[in-house]
Amino acid sequence: MKGKVLHKMAHKKFLLSSLCAIVLSCSDEVGWNNQEPINFRDLTFDEELYGTGQDGFSEIFSTYSGVNASNDISEKEILENQHLMHGSGVALGDVNGDGLIDIYIPRIKEDNVLYINKGEWQFEDFTLVAGVAAPNRYSNGSVFADVDGDRDLDLIVTALGGPNSLFINDGNGIFVEKKLDSKLNNPGSTSSALADVDNDGDLDLYITNYKRIAMRDSLPPPAISFDNTLYESPDGKWKVVPPFNREYEAEVKGDKLFRFEFGEVDQFYFNDGKGNFNLIDITKENFYSVDGGPIDSHLRDWGLVAQFRDINNDGHPDIYICNDFESPDRIWINNGDGSFRQIEKTAIRHTSNSSMSVDFSDLNKDGYVDFFVSDMLSQSHVMKKTQMGTMLPTILLIGEIENRPQYMRNTLFLNRKDHTFSEIGQYSKTYASEWSWASAFMDVDLDGNEDMLITTGHVYDVQDSDSIEKQKKVASSVRSFDEYKRMLLNFPTLELKNIAFKNKGNLKFETVKDAWGIGKEEDISHGMAFGDLDNDGDLDVVINRLNQNVGLFRNNTKSPRISLRLEGKAPNTNAIGAKIEVIGNNSIQSREIVSGGRYLSGSDHLQVFAADDEEVLSATITWRNGSQTKIDSLFANREYIIREKNTFYPNKEDRSIKQLYENVSDLIDHNHIEKSFDDFSKQSLLPNGFSQIGPGVLWMDIDNDDDQDVFIGGGNGGSIDYYRNDGDAFSAFSIDSKLERDATALLSSANSDGTVGLMAAFSNIEDAAIGPSLIKNYTRSGEEKINSIEDMIGPMSQSDIDNDGDLDLFVGGRWKPNEYPKASSSKLYINDNGNYIVDKSNLDILDDIGMVTSSVFSDIDNDNDQDLIIALEWGPVTILENVNGRFKNSTEKVGLKNYKGWWNGVTTGDFNNDGLIDIVATNWGLNTKYHFSPDHPRVVYFDDFDNNNVLDIVEAHFDDDFSSLVPERGFSCMSNAMPFIRDEKETFLNYAQSSLFDIFGNELNSAPSLEANTLESMVFLNSKKGFIPVKLPFETQMTTGMHAGVSDMNGDGNDDIFISQNFFAVQRETDRNDSGRGLIILGDGKGNFKAMLGQESGILVYGEQRGSAFADFNNDKKVDLIVTQNGAQTMLFKNKLSKPGLSVRLHGPKKNPLAFGSSVQIEYSDGSKGPKREIRSGAGYLSQDSPVQILGLKQNAEFIISTWPNGKTKRSEINGNEINLYIDK
Predict the structure, then answer these.
(1) CA spacing 20 to 30 A to 189: which of 40, 53, 289, 1127?
(2) What global pTM score does this model have?
(3) Most distant CA pair in the chain, distance
(4) What backbone phi and psi angles, to 5 degrees, belong to 514?
């Protein structure tokens, strides 16, 4: 059949690279052009055979292709061993060297099948001739690989229960079987992966093991009950009764006892170069802990997939292992010699729970691989609420940072370029893809961005909560083991459509209808592999489906492409571990050649890249040994074969990075103490715990020795601590020990004689009998208590509101204890000679302002008085304009009313150097399960819906399928809080199919409610007429932002931002927010922002960061930083690399000696000005910066402009780099 040549370039100009360049010539003949070390051919296209040209796939049915194998299992096999429902995979490769990709199908019940590709989508069963039927076993996995270096593809076949076999190819597609050694009896093997791990040129082998048969299929429930298998030993530890200790382990987490069933140890083999594999016991050799010591865990995991990839970019293949259930995923980093160590504990903060498969891609094209792991969360609200799952609850202990929780959803890990990852599955919208198995990246639409294809489905929906409930009710009446087993058949079936995510190129994906053609019908799809079955230069798809014919899917695209196949030196003839980087079309595309590593499957090694008809592309091949080949002239619509010849070794790059900050936390050696408290005991539907909101921190020179001392709040059971700065060290003192309440916000205070003290807020949230929140003022003469607001206290801020020279106090109220989200009243206290009197003139406006999380006084309108900015939970950043001491809500007037968020921190800065005060506010972030928008805000209703004197909380979001609000929380949680829901809805399914109004009816119309429509942390630029919203960079939105601080951290004369991050104290149906490490965001003085990488900033804080504050504690004219963590170590950072700035200290009136409410601004010799910097008492989040300002310098600074609390402005000449300004001089 005559084809159409796709290559259309009339003028073919070839470029010569400067070093070891490859020069390509062209030929007008259809066929291969052979020029060592490269061959190429023009690609041909015929619509009848090769597709319609539309992006996506068309199924080629067995009646045409001859591929009629089906992986069938019956009820009998299922009841004997549920693991057989996990299906089988696919292997693709050219086994007979004819240039066509052949198909191997392993099967559970029947013999395996090898189909030889005859061309034009015709295949012939060649199994018996080839000798690869592998009878009498439950075959599930298969991979083609050249294990003996003879340039033909051999075959590895794994089986559930064994044996695992290696089939050696004689070069003509005829195989001889060799059994692989195993120290396990009948191993429950799954997937295979191969790579040269020890630099000897051959392919070594890793096989994941699951378990041949689970205990549930081996013994009846009474025999394996907790009571029959566990006991408490005299030392109080829970242990497993022999002989069950060979099958289970017991673990206590918090106050909960868990029992976990062991899986099996994986199998790792070294290749001797001739295809003989030597089994290594990974529990005893070659695999080590993070610090190089012996492994501290048993490694008897439930392995499903292992994939070799160069995760840390050092040129050596590392391993990611996907484990099912509570077995942790294992990430092994290659030491460069074939031995491995565990990845650093904080490199990955959490994982999927039932990790089914993994694949890698450089999603943001920064030269570092990112990766995706599939799990089982549904995209449908109904299925989410009926599949509440078998996953055990995640127990999060206070201060636990290096643990790695598991969550039942897909995860997507973004490489931070320092061997650590930020998990962004919820931001990217890839977190849910139904009950998933295989997952793999492929650029389906050839736009230069790799998309994701995922197979789905299961024989039975064993997560169906209604079926689980029914089983529990009848379990006691079951009389036989067979009857118990047959209860599985009562679960609903779970045929599903396969899923495809289109990569939008901005780290976000969208679900494609019918998965580009591989998801048109519901089925049970397992293994999946890619290969060019019709030689048109794109990748087709083969899927092994359960109880249905294998699916062959032709890729229809006509988009320009380049396909590359590498031929490596023997014995690594397929160049496994080599990397390809293609540059052109204003884009970089990269791939790494892998062998196996798919769910039960192995793809062909051909790589396909998007191209442009009018542009010449270039490529760099980095071979496994580190040498390179560069090609300067690749043309669209060609397939290239590139051989590992005439390579060169590139010069090694110096990748060392000088960090802006140095961690000097040992100077203070402080740990925050936080007692555990059950926030959910009174209101079980709280969205988060609120007993872990602190601590705050502040800097001030308490002892008048011209250096900055630091004060840190404490939790219940802890203390408020003072660290005196002794010049080159700190001395520790306790201000208030054995606290019975959490000390949250901290401020400095001033007595009438001008001496400074410490003011601390104490929350009543943990009181057994709720009393009013408390403020303590610690002075040299003792402590003074102020009974503050009746409810939960939030932030505090100070300024001179009534222009009498002393500091008045704003106290923000959060919410009423046990009545969330009813807002607490906030109050303003007027300072009357040291007595704090409630300002009655502002009672009304503050009484119902909302749940205040942060506050700051600022002259936002440049009228020389202090306005009040507050951040609200379930509300906007609110502006209270000061009009002669009375506050007026100007939020709507300045354009902020509609930005309702879960704001946490707020402060001010001048980010475009215009002298107008801008606002920065932290929010919950976009990387959470909460997704909402201005059109469809998140809503919370609150009322005593069941009349039991407990305020019920009902969170809801808009669902497209319902075109209505649906409840956020699940049936169990909601019905436990409000039993009438269980009485009325009865089942998980009825509940899941109900909108919020179906559940609550007309009661919602009268119930109070709040809403939020904004999750991003933002800057609001002051335009005089109002504020212009600016979303902070991507890195800001990856987790919850807490503190916001503003200073010039790199000394370039522009305001920068620091944001403390993370929140772990979430309710049990929510993932902890842990993708942050503390973030410096550099400003350019024009209102633009760029995040600093952690390895550049030196700020690497992995816990729940809270309050933070700036100071120059070592008097080197650089901005230093302290960051607190809830229940963990306080982190102190010394600035190393910033240019020294100008130190400015203001001396205010006696009752405001630190001149809070003032501002300073540099004027340069050319008349331009730097940012206006305000001296604030209480800002960001529960904290206070040093009042001594370090101002960065762009050029020669001539004057400092100071504006004082009384409205006076001074213009003072700058002499030296340290300036003291006085209000009365």
Answers:
(1) 289
(2) 0.96
(3) 102
(4) 55, 20
